[in-house]
Amino acid sequence: MDPATAAGAEAEHVLLAIRGRAAHLTLNRPRALNALTHAMVRQIDEALTAWEHDPAVDTVVLTGAGERGLCAGGDIRAIHEDARTGGTASADFWRDEYRLNARIARWPKPYVAVMDGIVMGGGVGISAHGNVRIVTERSRVAMPETGIGFVPDVGGTYLLSRAPGELGTHLALTGTPVGAADAILCGLADHYVPSPELPLLLAELSTSPLREALPHHTHEPPPPGVLTTHRDWIDHCYAADTVEEIVDRLLATGIQEAKQTAETLLTKSPTSLKVTLRAMRRARELPTLEEVLTQEYRISCASLTSPDLVEGIRAQVIDKDREPRWVPGTLEEVGDAEVARFFGPTSGTEALFTSGG
């Protein structure tokens, strides 16, 4: 494929349209569940620049093409190849992606993220930082990074560290997907709109301000989700200071769901679990999203040199044998010095965000 053709194909991965008062961003890689590439991140950022200063645009609407979901995250096959070969493309991608996440959080106009279907990883980053976040009965929202030897990023530790009690810690460590009610409970979404009503809402946004259109289509959330049911043992177990103690508390509860959660944790990358817990605890103390994203950028770049990232993606996505061989293989073998390595200075992180944004 020649460069011009390749550039044209990449441009089609984000469809831009203005319909009346609303500007639409449609992620258009349905075969890859709309996974984000670096070119897509740049195109979204350029569109937001144009629309921020366009007086004809009242609202921006983010949706995903296809029937399966908004976005499954970043292009982890590309990240796998980059990590395997010692490249720098992933660090460049994350720099622009995290800046976009922060920009969305500061967006001065209504930014309507339609979180229908699967919304994971990078998909959370371009939706859950928006000021109008819609979930449906089909929504499955997750930060599943520990299962591929990575750590929640795109501001995920900022969002989850601010969820009630220890619910966010549970979701960050296990990667468990949640539905509409739990997404709203954890502060990842705001409004529940049944999926059959989405076309009506989007059509109305072309002619009416958001404040008038949205109430016509929002409904009471579905009944409380599983997190509400299990809140007591989640809060108790995840308040522990170490991942080892969290696992011990889960096993000691005598509750079947807690035991299954402990078993789930023990399938994840031990290094990722320990780094994630420390990142979550530190994120609680950092006052701004930008500061948390800077921490996440350091962790993400350090992950490129960790064997677990390459191995995790291999096992889950490349070979799909679902049998990762983590190094180190147990929680007890992951020392404090190894965890601290992920939080050390990374070239360029101090300039990730400037005083001007």
Automatic annotation (TrEMBL):
Domain of life the protein comes from: Bacteria
The protein's Enzyme Commission number: 3.1.2.4
CDD domains: crotonase-like
InterPro entries noted in UniProt: ClpP/crotonase-like_dom_sf (IPR029045), ECH_dom (IPR045004), HIBYL-CoA-H (IPR032259)
Coiled-coil region list: none
Keywords: Hydrolase
Record's keyword annotation contains Hydrolase: yes
Domain Enoyl-CoA hydratase/isomerase per the UniProt entry, residue ranges: 23-343
Reaction it catalyzes: 3-hydroxy-2-methylpropanoyl-CoA + H2O = 3-hydroxy-2-methylpropanoate + CoA + H(+)
Keyword Hydrolase part of the UniProt annotation: yes
Protein name: 3-hydroxyisobutyryl-CoA hydrolase
Record organism: Streptomyces noboritoensis
